[in-house]
Design a protein that fits this description.
single chain, 61 residues, mainly alpha
């Protein structure tokens, strides 16, 4: 069974990964990069959905 990770949980994981890289070095960089991509993609999706909603509010069909 798959459970969706919340935006807050994803952001926290991203921040923790950044801290781990800062403390322990580049060995953990791939984890940080993956979380960074996931977080940025999710934020871009949310922005696109908000833009679509704004456009849709001004269109009558």
């Amino acid at each position: 069974m798959s459970q969706r990770v919340s935006d807050e949980e994803l952001k926290k994981a991203y921040e923790v990964a950044a801290k781990v890289v800062a403390i322990h070095g580049e060995t953990y960089l791939p984890i940080f990069e993956r979380l960074e991509r996931e977080y940025e993609a999710r934020m871009q999706t949310k922005k696109a959905l908000a833009r679509a909603q704004a456009v849709a509010e001004n269109v009558s069909i």
